[in-house]
Write a structure and sequence with these properties.
four-stranded antiparallel sheet, alpha+beta, 3 helices, 108 residues
Amino acid sequence: MSQKVYCIASFEAKEGKEKELLEVLQALEPKTLREDGCIQYIVTKQFSHPNACGKSFPIVFNEIWESKEAFEFHCNKSYITKFFQKHCVHKDGLVKDFNVCVYTDEIN
C-alpha cells in the first residue's frame, strides 16, 4: 500500500485580488518542487465546463507527497507558514477564504 499524501488546498481571493493571488501561489511552486518527497505541486484555476458543475473555491493547489512526514515538513517550511500568515490569517491578505484537505489512497 502507498504512503502517499494527496493534498487539495483551495483558495478564494478577495475581490479584485485573484490575479495577484495566483501570482503569489505560482511563486511557491519552484521551491516546493525542489523539496524532498514532493511528487506534484501545481496551482490550478477553475474553469466552466458542462460536465463539471460542482462547487469549489476557484484556485486550487493539487499536491502529491511521498509520505505524511514529507507533507508535514513542507507545511512547516517558513515560506509556507509566512504565506498562510500573510495572506490567509492577516486581515490585509489576498485570501478571502481557504480550505486545505489531505487524502490517502489506502482504503481500509
